[in-house]
């Protein structure tokens, strides 16, 4: 059963305006770390001010954040990051509810796989297509629509709503970290990530790992004199796949519905600088899922031990062990 206030707010939801907002957000190519990411934060600040919120838009001190012992790390290069928080000015002594969403998107990948420009929104029926439409500019549009509906309905809240729009979510969470360091907080938070309508009550963590595998360079005409770093990496890739299986054998009941609750994925592999050379170095980077209540140090140790065991079984890797580092 809806209260009178809830029914009034729902009645003020403007679906056409919400769809227009989503398309306008998609049209800003806010790839993580890009200038457009900052551009979108400034655009959203204007929207929050128009909705009557007290707005805090600030340039984050990246040097200070990077020096903090709890800094979450980053993957994308950047020379600026903007934080944005809008807070409803009225409200009694009730709690503060945070509506949180990230403005950055991952790169569009193979442009040939897209039907048109990924940053030119396309509507098919009642579905909006474009990079970031689902993750998570639809969530940002929903937050804005909820605020507009509450305002239009003339509802006076018991507490306050704080909207946190953040950057850098796709590469570690710099924006959320910087927002908390700024002193913004609340009593509860709704993050409108795409979840197929499922209410998420627990989430795994993630660590970014880097494995640097040595080889021995040689010209391709005398390939037998070299050791390909690509070939040397293959047993490590297989070992990491086995580690993922082991770490997902008995997941927490809160995550048991997911096929791979604690995913281990290698996202990039870089090797070689000349087609006619045996590559002497390979760098693989990936994401390690951290289990519920698991100390991140234990997760790191599990992957490092997995790599060490694979190296012990391989003559080349045993004599030339790869290096494992944790950039994020």
Describe this structure in words.
- By secondary structure, the chain is α+β, with helices and mostly antiparallel strands.
- It folds into 2 domains: 4-191, Aminopeptidase (3-Layer(aba) Sandwich); 205-325, Alpha-Beta Plaits (2-Layer Sandwich), CATH 3.30.70.360.
- 34% of the residues lie in helices and 22% in strands.
- The chain has 9 helices and 13 strands.
- Strands 1-2-6-3-7 form a 5-stranded mixed sheet, sandwiched between helices.
- Helix 1 (4-11) packs across helix 5, helix 2 (15-26) crosses helix 5 and helix 7 crosses helix 8.
- The longest helix has 20 residues, at 133-152.
- The protein is elongated, with a radius of gyration of 24 Å.
For this structure, the CATH topology of the largest domain is Aminopeptidase
Q: End-to-end distance, in Å?
A: 45 Å
Sheet having the most strands: 5 strands, mixed
Mean pLDDT level: 95
Radius of gyration: 24 Å
Alpha plus pi helix count: 9
CATH architecture of the largest domain: 3-Layer(aba) Sandwich
In CATH's first tier, which class of the largest domain applies?
Alpha Beta
**H/E element sequence:** HHHEHEEEEHEHEEEHEEEHHE
| Tertiary shape | elongated
Number of strands: 13
SS-based class:
alpha+beta
Low-confidence stretches: none
Number of domains: 2
Keywords:
four-stranded antiparallel sheet, alpha+beta, 13 strands, 328 residues, 2 domains, Aminopeptidase, Alpha-Beta Plaits
Topology diagram in text:
Blueprint: H1 4-11, H2 15-26, H3 35-50, E1 54-59, H4 62-67, E2 82-87, E3 96-102, E4 122-124, E5 127-129, H5 133-152, E6 160-166, H6 174-181, E7 188-191, E8 205-214, E9 218-219, H7 229-247, E10 264-271, E11 277-278, E12 281-290, H8 296-312, H9 315-319, E13 323-325
Parallel strand pairs: 3-6, 3-7
Antiparallel strand pairs: 1-2, 2-6, 4-5, 8-12, 8-13, 9-11, 10-12
